Amino acid sequence: MNLRVYLFLFCLLFAGFASTRAASTPAAGFWEADLPVTAPGGALTTAQYGPAVEGLFRAFEAQAGRRLTPGEKRKVGLKLYADSGPGMATPQALVHAVISALERRGYARADIFLVGLNQFRLQLTGFLPTDPSVPPPFAGHPFYVLESGRFYDPVWYYDSPLPSRFDPILSGRQDENFVVSAELGIDSAGKVFDRDADRKSFLATPLFIDADFWINMPVYTDHEALGVNGALVNATLWNASNTSRFFRSSRSAPAAVAEMAAIPELRQTWAFTLASLERWQFVGGPIYNSLYTRSEPLLWLGADPVRMDSAMGARIDAARKATGFKPLSDEIRTLEFAEVLGLGTRRGAVPLKVAPVAVETMP
Asked: Do 199 and 161 meet the contact criterion of CB atoms below 8 Å apart?
């Protein structure tokens, strides 16, 4: 299916689509739970994350009117973030706590799969071992590394009018080994390639084809081209192929994020976003810099990624102002575009406080 059909209709019906969604969809939930306060430089454990995760899951289940239990496909995906490198990645303790909560709801270990973008960064952040003889920290769980190319489907892609070969910084085809079926050609080395593939960003299909639902687990940083690097970006540009061409442009990147996040199939199985504020960055992102990080003992869960990213944008701006930096650029319209496409609202109530719930068994 060529996703340009969806995106073309969205562009034609911006205002009407947004108003229809607002009228037919109940207000999405946005909750936060307190986490234990750790010593400076310390890290939370799985046992410390567990009660907050359980409390937030129950709040979501109560509003959704259903339990996060196995469905027809009996699989669930966790979209991790490791692309800022060591120091700014989805906390492994949080991932273990989420896995425990899903196992309590009936999912088998082998049916909870993890998704990350780049193998090298996943190794640097400890999600994958660098030594094959060392047991992986998430043994028993399928781990899908997207840049391996094995988890993209040539039928599912976002078609951008900006080919990477016309980008003066990212010139050259980035996907010469990725073979698809449409309009094939032969390069100088005799390889078969898709003539239009450098305009396409292929989507990671396991999250919306193989799973009952998936949970987005970003870490928040600022971003020069996108403003807030968080819920929306982790679900889109960090979740597809050939998207690095967008990261350098504050004009094309926001539109790409909003349009990719609006794909109906992706949204249908995207249950919610779960983000720890154990560490977030307000200047210099997405490259990790410990001088510009903040820490809050809070865990957020929200079904509205626009609202979550907007709330974090306000925090980032406050931290930048307090340290003498300019706020995020008003010219970056990622959240505005996403709101117009009906993905959520930039303004609303603060997150509802949820009490942590003690669990009997923690790893």
From this structure: yes
